[in-house]
Each structure stands twice: as structure tokens, then as C-alpha cells.
Write a structure and sequence with these properties.
The chain is mainly alpha-helical. It has one domain. It is built from 10 helices and no strands. The two termini are about 40 Å apart.
Length: about 250
Amino acid sequence: MSAMETSQAAPAARPRTVTSLGALYRLLLRTQVTVPRLLGIGALGALSVLLGVFARLGENEPVQAAAEMCAYYGLGIVVPLAALWLGTSAIGDLVEDRLLVYLWLKPVPRWQLPAAAVLATVTLVVPLTALPLAASAVAAGAGELALTALLAASLAACAYAGLFVAAGLWLRRAVWWGLAFAVLWENAGAYASDGTERFTVTSWARSILSTVQGVDVELSGRSVAAALVVLPAIAVAGWLAATVRYRRADVD
């Protein structure tokens, strides 16, 4: 093949990759969007706004009260549970509906389905959790915290999405394993020592909250610059782990 033919063939392959990834993304997005999921996660997000109102009416300083609500309820409960519910089901729904075999047989690179699963999960989790947390900061009278809370929750959502999509491929009953991880490790084991704290998503996300003046929350001793790198890196690591498993899987 001549150099000119090679240069013409390479650009032609790129749209096919983008097109196939986009098609998988849209498929997974449709399978993840169900009324019970939207109502359940939406209720958790709405509760965060209500808690923001209560924080404003409390006796504590509004910024600190809003930061504690975002850290303990938002980053500790809402974001991981939403990512768990959607992430583990992203490919799991295809298995239950017996659609995965059709995707497996298509001439699509194996990395694309896990990537589409992570992207679809993030697409849903961020607006359903991060935006309400930002709104809760405004409701608490701590508008200066809103963008920081939005960033912290969004990056935490990316990290959890990667982890739970991978868990959905590697583990049976991934929802229960993920729930144990979110409750026992992220919300209990993190307080055991500084050594365990640094291996939790929530500690890195909470460190971003600490950039706002007057905010002091537990488990926020990590470097903010490092947090901006570590949280996306966790998402990428989860995608790679999911890809490895998907390549080795036996699909019926």
C-alpha cells in the first residue's frame, strides 16, 4: 500500500471508532435511564437541598455547615450510592436482557463497551448528584462553596463510576459488594488511620472542599493538586480493569 493510500485509510478508521463508541454510549444510557432509578437518586439529591436549607437555619456558620453536609451526606452517601446503582448495572442490564452477546460479536474494540459504560454512568450521576449538592450550598447561604462542591462531587462521581463499572464485570452480586465498600470502607475504614484514609475516594474529594476559606472537614488532609489527578486516575484505572475483564469474559 502506498503512503498516500495509508494516509487516506487512517482518517477513515477514526470516524468508525467514534461512531461505534457513540452508539454504545447511547445504548447504555437508554438502558440505565429508568423511572425507579431517576426517582430514587433524584430523591437523594432533593434531600441534600433540603438539608442545605436546614443548615442555613442552624446555629453554625453557613459555609462550614454546608461543607459538612456536602462531605458527610453528599460525598459520603449520595454520590457513591448513585454511582453504585448505575455503574454496576451499566453492563449488568445487558447481561440480564441477553443483549451482551450481540455486542460481543460485533467487530468493535473491547475497550469501547467499558468506556461507554463509565461515560454513561458519569453522564447521569453528575447532574443527579453534583448539581443538587451545589444547589444545597446556595440554599445554605454558602454560595462561595457551590462551585467547589460541584467540582468535588463531579470528580468523585467519575472515580466511583470507574470502580463500580469494573466491579459489575469482575464480581457477582456487585451491588452488595459495592454497598459494603461504600459503607464499610469509604465511611468507616477511612477513619481508621491516615494509611487507610489515603486509599478512599471520599478523602480525596473532601480535600477539594477544604480549598474554600473557613472550611474544615474530616478526611481532607490530601493535597488538592494531587486530588485533581488521583480522582480521574481512579476512573481510568477502573475502566482499564473493566476492559481486561471484558476481554477475558465468556459471553453466552
